[in-house]
Amino acid sequence: QLPTGLYKKVLVILHDSVLPYMNEPTLMMDFLTVAYGIGGAISLLALNGLFILIHQHNLEYPDFYKKLYSLLDPSIYHVKYRARFFHLTDLFLSSSHLPAYLVAAFIKRLSRLALTAPPEALLMVIPFICNLFRRHPACRVLVHRPGGPADMSEDPYVMEEEEPSKSRALESSLWEIQSLQNHYHPDVAKAAAVLNQSLSEMEDDISGLLELSAYELFDKEVKKKAVDVPLEFEQVRGLFGKKNDIFAEHFSLD
Q1: Is there a domain that residue 63 lies in?
Q2: pTM for the predicted model, two decimal places
Q3: Which pLDDT tens digit goes with each residue over 132-189?
Q4: How far is CA 227 from CA 141, 223, 224, 230, in A?
Q5: 202 is in which domain, residue-wise?
Q6: CA-CA-CA-CA torsion for 38, 41, 42, 48, nearest 10 degrees?
Q7: Rounded CA gap, 77 and 85, in Å?
Q8: How far apart are the first and last CA of the chain?
Q9: How many helices (DSSP H) and strands (DSSP E) are in the chain?
């Protein structure tokens, strides 16, 4: 048993400072799988090492996607390892051979959690979801379901279900993204409205959005050039602004 702080320090550097220099990186399989099962930030940090073992050393982890799905909770939009987590999740969900029910479960869970996410996280996760639709066209039924949310008395998706195959995500619709189209931040509302149109085949580059902060978002808004909005079509004349105002004969507005 290692202290939590030591676990984090080791996992942060393991993928680039330890594994590449080991003669047998597969010796770290047990350590990484145990760390992946701990939960929280430790599980997020273990993803880097597991990614190398799965892709380069043929590690088989039958419940890998189930565990990755369980890591999706409200904190993922707030932790400082958010960029690393979504970068790796994007890689793990890039295969076109993944079943539609699995990808749909990830899309639905990310959308549900997005309802309480900050704007800087939403501007990253909405293009992320759009990219998943581009890779897996079978999941577009979530957006283009006949009748949409209006014909559903209740959402069949089971948020509490830990097994993605039993979450019934493919039977649902993305009413959450439709709700975000009325978000108070105009950039978020604009990003969510993209799903109302047919998506282009080219994927969005989310690399520049992974580490977007609230400060950067605020700074961008402050630096926008203000546009002069005309308030009156006709120039005001007289005290009450009427054309034949008797006051215009005796008073003038400077």
Answers
A1: no
A2: 0.76
A3: 999 898 888 888 776 655 556 688 899 888 899 899 998 888 889 989 999 989 899 9
A4: 40, 12, 9, 10
A5: 97-227
A6: 120
A7: 10
A8: 80
A9: 11, 0
Question: Is 69 part of any domain?
Answer: no
Q: Are 152 and 86 in contact (CB under 8 A)?
A: no
Q: 202: which 2 tokens?
A: 């080219």
What would the pLDDT profile of 175-196 be if each residue is shown by its tens digit? 899 899 999 898 999 999 998 8
Nearest CA-CA partner of 99 in 74, 73, 69, 79? 69
Helix (H, G, I), strand (E, B) or coil at 78: coil
| Residue indicated by tokens 């790796």 | 88
| CA–CA distance, 229 with 83 (Å, rounded to integer) | 39
> For the packed helices 4-17 and 40-56, what is the interaxial angle rounded to 10 degrees?
20
Counting the structural domains of the chain, the total is 1
Q: What beta strand segments (E) does 156-215 contain?
A: none
CB atoms within 10 A of CB 226: 5
